[in-house]
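#structure-requests
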Amino acid sequence: MRLSTNMIYQQQTSGVLNAQSSWLEVGKQLSTGKRVVNPSDDPISAANAVVLKQAQAQGAQYASARDFAIQRNSTEESTLKQVTSVVSSAQTILVAANNGTLSDDDRASYATQLKGLRDQLLNLANSTDGNGRYMFAGYKSDSAPFNMDGDGNVTYGGGTTAITQQVDANRNMVTNHTGSEVFMTLTSNAKKEPDGTDGESNIFATLKTAIDALDSPIGTDQTAATDSQNALAKSMRGLSNSFNNILAVRSELGTNLTELDNLDALGDDRSVIMSTQMSNLVDVDYTSTISSYTMLQAQLSASYSTFQQMSKMSLFQMNQ
């Protein structure tokens, strides 16, 4: 079989171009650090990388959600810490005020102190977060959840559903409790009234009962004095029950924060594992790639040399 000069030229040119293309491809891998840049580079690895990238994106979303949940739970816990301090002060005042030897002026002074604590409590119940949203209003967070009328009656107008956040694939968590859960709910083991009925669940109504009793002069009226003591005793039971409920909510918040820390640690571990898997799928092995680069560079040099030698065996030489 006879080979024409044109065929020899085409074969040698093709060999040089193929060697050059392979060398440049490996060079691109070294410069980008990626073994798989296009799906055609390694279809199986590219497909697995797409799935893994989606998992990484989802993990990042959950991490952001946990940051949000930590912020909201921490803010609520900080607020409820102040609430327990106010309620504790009110309990101390009630103990002092439940004394049959006090004058009407002394009782009125205690009532004034309780009014100040009630106002503090109302302000805390209408606390806002860093974005100006009402913390204890549920999903009606654009308006104050608690309102007090001219007679001192406090009502709740916030949402009935607590705000939740998905913080992991299979975990939804309450990030903010409603005001009714915190200030108008009793625990299952709350103290009953002497007649066996449930106690007052509205902490503001409990304080109003005490304030009204202390604001009412009794003088030497024994019946009025007995009614006042009964009202104060009821208020003390009510505050104790409300205090325990608030502590239960704070305990839940503490548990949530601990769980969020654990989920963050688990998420960090997952992120490291997925990053390693992604690197194994698409990143270059520099040792192997540098070796290939050097070898292909030598092959390209050899192709150039071969082309030069082969051209002398053809009509190229004769046409010079």
